[in-house]
Amino acid sequence: MKTALAALLLLLNFLTSPPAAAAPKGTPGEAVAMTKRAIALIASQGHAKAFAEFADPANAAFHDRDLYVFVYDMDGVAVAHGVNPKMVGKNLRDMRDIDGKYIIRGFIGAAQSPAGSAWVEYKWPNPATKTVEPKAACVERTGDLIVGAGVYK
């Protein structure tokens, strides 16, 4: 009887507890997966359709909490950006973070590495918190493009 009562109380506690909240920040694994999904979409649907998908904030495949996709060409021109469409079409090769680190040059260097991909660390405004935070982006080269998604630390 005591075991049945304990099990019932445990079940009631479980059923009446609030659901666990989603993690507030994306994880490195989620950033890698988002980057891979973006590359697959570019390959299957072409640049224009894929870039439109990346720009759509309602598309959960490419917008999840603080995770979003960005795409640059090998010269440093933004060709798609998940949260800041004003960047698209601009050469941002010389853009620096608040510590003076060249961000896009880092992406280009990672894309030109023998692996064609790497993690690049820098500081960037978090769209969820509206503050500049340390960030690490998984970037990967596909053709003449650099595709990435990053996590805030």
Automatic annotation (TrEMBL):
Residues 30-105 form the Single Cache domain. Residues 1-22 form the signal peptide. GO terms for molecular function: kinase activity. It is found in: Cell membrane. Pfam families: sCache_2. The keyword Transmembrane applies. GO terms for cellular component: plasma membrane. Keywords: Cell membrane, Kinase, Membrane, Signal, Transferase, Transmembrane, Transmembrane helix. Transmembrane segments: none annotated. It is a multi-pass membrane protein. It comes from the Bacteria. This is Histidine kinase.
